[in-house]
Automatic annotation (TrEMBL):
This is Acyltransferase. It comes from the Eukaryota. The chain crosses the membrane at residues 24-57. Its main location: endoplasmic reticulum. Keywords: Acyltransferase, Endoplasmic reticulum, Glycerol metabolism, Glycoprotein, Lipid biosynthesis, Lipid metabolism, Membrane, Transferase, Transmembrane, Transmembrane helix. It is a multi-pass membrane protein. Its EC number is 2.3.1.-. GO terms for molecular function: 2-acylglycerol O-acyltransferase activity; diacylglycerol O-acyltransferase activity. One of its GO terms (biological process) is triglyceride biosynthetic process. One of its GO terms (cellular component) is endoplasmic reticulum membrane.
Length: 334
């Protein structure tokens, strides 16, 4: 395969965008390991007392990721995130007002490989605040990341919180409303389906978020991120293949999936880990009113789940033509 090199005449702004995305890839794939390694060096080196002080802090601060986190508007508004969003570009689209007097649970679809749309729209920039004034977004991610020294402080500063039940309850239990939980419904398992053109969502057996919405009376909002699966190519891993079986077993053991993905490089377009420049349009649907029910029955959960799937499909069908999805293509629920 011949390499396709980037032209020398690429504008400086586009090069800065590429660097911004490169640091995001590093943060997503390697920063946690780097932080853990640095912590071990502190323990084994002459600065072990700093590690001990941090362990004391970690003990005292352990519940913060489940109690709304500790966001930093300074971090969320870094200029690097502006270039990150412009690289693709990433855009948030509003279809309906969300009354800030309520709390909301936004179901984000699809996961994609690295959930770029969710991060770009809900953890950086002013788009969400401008479109939905009075609402504070909380992106829920796997609890395992909050056990990583130093890295936990960084992701909390961006507005990320734990995806545990306690964390979701804390956000949705806000008196007077104004909170929005964003949950990537398909989870890590869905990332293994993140091939270009794929419209397969892991959602049929995902009903915990429905129960949480009922228990807290949080209105449900389907969100579909067009272009999320187009950012990377992934090694073929059809269900039943040896690779998919290994990936699924590792996912069950570690709690997160390991998709074998690739896209482009920094100076060439043929191979690398930097995502393709594909636009991401994250469309926020209309709210589904939910009445508080502290002890919902299985039937009530099933009924609301069916309504949610219906509204998610409706959202996709109404907007797919705007973002290059052929008319005959439709969502596949698994």
């Amino acid at each position: 395969m011949a390499l396709r090199f980037a032209p020398v005449s690429v504008p400086l702004e586009r090069r800065i965008q590429t660097v911004a995305v490169l640091q995001w890839i590093f943060s997503f794939l390697l920063l946690a390991q780097f932080c853990c390694g640095f912590f071990v060096i502190l323990i084994l080196g002459n600065f072990w007392f700093l590690a001990v002080l941090y362990l004391v802090w970690l003990y005292l601060d352990w519940e913060t990721p489940c109690a709304g986190g500790r966001r930093s508007q300074w971090v969320r508004s870094w200029t690097v995130w502006k270039y990150f969003r412009e690289y693709f570009p990433i855009q948030l689209i509003k279809t309906s007002d969300l009354n800030p007097n309520h709390n909301y649970l936004l179901g984000f679809h699809p996961h994609g490989v690295l959930v770029a749309g969710a991060f770009g729209n809900f953890c950086t920039g002013p788009s969400f605040k401008n479109l939905f004034p009075g609402l504070t977004p909380y992106l829920h991610i796997m609890p395992i990341w909050f056990g990583c020294p130093f890295f936990r402080e960084y992701i909390m500063s961006a507005g990320m919180v734990s995806a545990s039940k306690e964390s979701v309850s804390y956000v949705l239990n806000n008196e007077g409303g104004g909170h929005a939980s964003i949950i990537v419904i398909g989870g890590a398992e869905e990332s293994l389906n993140a091939h270009p053109g794929s419209l397969t969502l892991n959602v049929l057996n995902r009903k915990g978020f429905i129960k949480m919405a009922l228990k807290h009376g949080a209105h449900l909002v389907p969100v579909f991120s067009f272009g999320e699966n187009e950012l990377f190519k992934q090694v073929a891993n059809p269900k039943g293949s040896w690779l998919r079986n290994v990936q699924e077993k590792l996912q069950k053991i570690m709690g997160f999936a390991l998709p074998l993905f690739h896209a482009r490089g920094v100076f060439q377009y043929s191979f690398g880990l930097i995502p393709f420049r594909q636009p991401i349009h994250t469309v926020v649907g209309s709210p589904i009113p939910v009445k508080r029910n502290l002890n919902p029955t299985t039937e009530e959960i099933e009924q609301l789940h069916a309504v949610y799937l219906q509204e998610l499909r409706k959202l996709f069908e109404e907007h797919k033509g705007n973002y290059g999805i052929p008319e005959h293509k439709t969502l596949i629920f698994e």
